[in-house]
Amino acid sequence: MSKFPELFTIPLAQGVDNAMDWLLMNWAGLFDFIGFIILKVVLAFEGLFLFVPWFVIILLVGFAGWKLVGNLKTGILFMGFLLVIGLFGYWDLSMQTLALVIASVLFALLVGLPLGIVMARSDRAENIFKPILDAMQTMPSFVYLIPALMFFGMGKVPAMFATIIYAVPPVIRLTNVGIRTVDVEAVEAAKAFGATKKQILFDVQLPLAKPSIMVGINQTTMMALAMVVIGSMIGAKGLGMEVLLAIGRIEVGRGFEAGISIVFLAVIIDRITHSLSVKKPKKQKKSEVTE
Length: 291
Description:
Blueprint: H1 12-26, H2 28-51, H3 54-69, H4 72-87, H5 91-121, H6 123-138, H7 145-152, H8 156-167, H9 169-180, H10 184-192, H11 197-208, H12 210-226, H13 228-232, H14 239-249, H15 252-275, H16 286-290
Helix pairs in contact: 2-5, 2-8, 3-4, 3-15, 4-15, 5-6, 5-8, 5-9, 5-12, 7-8, 8-12, 9-12, 10-11, 12-15, 14-15
């Protein structure tokens, strides 16, 4: 009586396997097309980052840190971080990692922003998507590697596919929350002036929801970066592969250098994307101050 009865079981695993087999048999062409598009995009970003001279990228990141974050010291710190990554010998690998993250975030936004808008405009859609997003965010990240491998094999494409699925929930949630928390009076005022639903969405709700949406983009980017090491297990090159090799060979120093490089990239990306969600006070002109 102390053991759970084995007579009654739920054949969920068998059902999932049958569904995957059906998809592979009937939609193989679609997955090949998706994989082709994903690969072209990530290779384009990778080629761009490896083509641009290292010192140009360092200067651009420093300038972004200065102007976007609003602090010259921050820009200099970002430049120092990238310089240290280069001195570790991981410049090319860090650019591959950056290309993978940016391409993954781009696809995540293409999927997440429209879904977030749909959720915000329909209570029924919100009730349907909420439990799905809960499951996606609580599911162990390694589970996403299984369908990615089945659909696309080994390499960059399955790593990106798994990263997109893992990273997309925050931008969907926060787009929905941002639009729903827009001041009702602003929407009513737009309606009073004869604005259409499309005009209300693009001219009122999305601009006012921008801080929340940008926080979602920030979180999506950080979650994509968190998949770097896991994605390396199925063929994604970059800093994650260095960490994986260091674990396999028990090379503590090598793993520490690669890990520190990932942390530096994460800090730079986090600060820059977070600064886009913060409203900066407008500088007053000298004439206005004197008056």
